[in-house]
Design a protein that fits this description.
This protein has 282 residues and is α/β, with parallel strands linked by helices. The chain is built from seven helices and nine strands, in the order βββαββαααβαβαββα. Helix 5 links the parallel strand 6 and strand 7. Helix 2 packs parallel to helix 4. Bound molecules: adenosine-5'-diphosphate (ADP) and magnesium ion. The site of adenosine-5'-diphosphate (ADP) has 9 residues, from helix 1.
Length: 282
């Protein structure tokens, strides 16, 4: 197991030309080009480019307020941008199935539907037959192994259980990309470890491309194949790092030398960015 040293920005995936001779799995799935977004007078993003690899987990990490949520919200179509282009395998968002897991699970589920009906909902919406819906539910239950009754209503479930249901619902239609914005930040540690592990298991089973915003560096590195380190605003990619520890990763991975090296490097980039902004007039 090893963590590759960080890749300098110039050599990064973001600028790599698409090589048609590469197998599809090696090419970027999401291409973000010239993305610009301004709130008020100060630009948050100005000509931002990034490629997000296929069949990989990509973590987005950066200082508070640098625009992590805004970035995935723009890419996932939840927020408009001023200029630029986002393509999924060359297709527009409308032609792509995506899933999104919100930080605030409390507002994410339909309170009047049982957990299981929340998970069924996107499948019914997509016009799947009853048999197909139930088959998919069985698969999801096998992958996530919820330890509670899915016939309960959201208010009868703990926060962690609700977030697990949100993730199952987001994955139900077999999205090409799953976006997660700090999905564990409101959960207790035990539940966080459990769901992270289930998520990794689903990734191993399905190879679903995942884009995860996290403010927890351990988590951002532990789950990811690629870690996107962002600067303060106007936000750029400070560095793209790879972390290639074999999966399944477990608690032991957290104390592996490769993990420690990768994390220390990410932390040094992060601190450099934070210090820059403290010293500089805004
Ligand atoms: N809808 C909005 N209107 C005005 N400003 C916003 C809006 N959403 C985000 N911002 C600003 O954009 C910046 C980045 O926000 P956000 O993407 O939530 O950061 P992060 O997720 O990295 O903490 C912040 O300064 C925030 O105040
Ligand atoms: Mg955020």
């Amino acid at each position: 197991m090893s963590a590759l040293p960080a890749v300098p920005r110039e050599d990064a995936l973001a600028d790599a030309p698409v090589d048609a001779t590469l197998p599809p799995s090696a090419r970027a799935q999401i291409t973000i080009r010239g993305l610009s977004k301004t709130f008020g007078d100060a630009p948050l993003y100005e000509g931002f480019d990034l490629d997000i690899p296929r069949r990989a987990i990509t973590s987005i990490f950066g200082p508070n307020g640098c625009g992590k949520s805004t970035l995935i919200n723009m890419v996932a179509g939840l927020m408009p941008f001023d200029r630029g282009e986002v393509l999924f395998d060359g297709k527009t968002l409308r032609q792509t199935t995506i899933g999104y897991v919100f930080q605030n699970y409390r507002d994410a589920l339909f309170p009047w539907r049982r957990a299981i009906d929340n998970i069924r909902y996107p499948l019914k919406l997509a016009g799947r037959s009853k048999v197909e819906v139930e088959r998919r539910i069985e698969q999801l239950v096998a992958s996530f192994q919820p330890t509670f009754d899915l016939n309960r209503y959201p208010y009868e479930l703990s926060g962690g259980q609700q977030q697990l249901v949100s993730i199952m619902r987001a994955l139900a239609p077999e999205p090409e990309v799953l976006f997660l914005d700090e999905p564990f930040s409101a959960l207790d540690y035990e539940m966080t470890l459990f769901i992270r592990d289930r998520l990794q298991q689903v990734f191993i089973e399905t190879g679903t491309t995942m884009v995860l915003v996290s403010h927890d560096l351990d988590e951002a590195v532990w789950l990811a194949d690629t870690i996107v380190l962002l600067t303060r605003r106007p936000t750029r990619v400070a560095e793209l790092m790879r972390f290639d520890a074999p999966r399944p990763r477990d608690i032991g991975t957290l104390t592996d030398a490769g993990f420690t090296v990768a994390k220390a490097h990410a932390l040094s980039v992060f601190q450099r960015e934070v210090r820059k902004a403290e010293g500089a007039p805004r």
